[in-house]
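Supplementary Methods. Inverse-folding protocol.

Structures were first reduced to a discrete structure-token string of length 145. This string, shown here, constituted the complete conditioning input.
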């Protein structure tokens, strides 16, 4: 009898990583949808991994995928063509574009830092305000008694 397991994979920085595994298809897809909604990953997919112990064969099938299809990269020229040792004219291929860094990453970092600083100032000012009120209340009670 074949055994099945559902793996939730996440894509971050161009690398797929197994996040978790589940025996149930619906549970694994639900987790994948939640992870995709968090916007922390470039892609999330669920793979049904089936293993048949009788034959020793495994089979993988993608049952849920939010990732975009990867762009095709031009194949690298053979070593002989790179050295210029072929008789055929060299084809001029456009250079592969390097992945662009996200411009808004720096803005997000600054935004997080500003929010953290704002919260810190609010907590300190609030704490000092509470201490001030307690001090004034103590002065009023000491005058009254």
């Amino acid at each position: 009898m074949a055994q099945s397991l559902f793996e939730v994979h996440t894509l971050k920085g161009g690398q797929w990583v197994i996040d978790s595994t589940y025996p149930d298809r619906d549970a694994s897809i639900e987790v994948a949808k939640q992870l995709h909604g968090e916007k922390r990953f470039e892609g999330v997919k669920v793979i049904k991994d089936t293993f048949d112990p009788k034959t020793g064969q495994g089979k993988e099938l993608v049952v849920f995928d939010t990732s975009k299809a990867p762009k095709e990269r031009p194949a690298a020229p053979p070593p002989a063509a790179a050295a210029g040792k072929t008789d055929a004219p060299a084809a001029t291929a456009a250079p592969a574009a390097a992945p662009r860094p996200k411009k808004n990453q720096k803005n997000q970092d600054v935004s997080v830092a500003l929010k953290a600083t704002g919260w810190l100032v609010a907590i300190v000012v609030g704490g000092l305000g509470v201490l001030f009120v307690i001090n004034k209340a103590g002065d009023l009670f000491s005058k009254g008694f």
